[in-house]
Amino acid sequence: MPSTHTDRYAISNATLKAGLLFTAVHAPTPLYYVFGDLKVLTPSEVQHYTAHAQQHGSGAWLLVSTRQAHAFDDVFNTPDARAA
User: Which residue pairs from 3-8 have beta carbons closer than 8 angstroms and sit at least 24 positions apart in sequence?
Assistant: First the structure.
């Protein structure tokens, strides 16, 4: 879930590294992070959105704005379901 005070997701740096390695080795298999509020980001999006952002003091967490995430249905709905 996003923070109730800052509207950001906290993603561990280790999770991001694992996701980027997975997508590199298993391309073109997609990988998505689905958060508790059913918003979606890919590892490359997390990396992009946090490249110039201030990182958590420990360096173990990356903070991404919830506004950057995609709605679950926008990503995973089939074209037939969207047309209905």
Answer: 6/63, 7/65, 7/66, 7/67, 8/63, 8/64, 8/65, 8/66
**3: CB partners within 8 A, 6+ apart:** 9, 10
Q: How far apart are CA 43 and CA 22, in angstroms?
A: 10
Contact 23, 44 (CB under 8 A): yes
- pTM > 0.90: yes or no: no
Q: Tens of pLDDT along 26-44?
A: 999 999 999 989 999 999 9
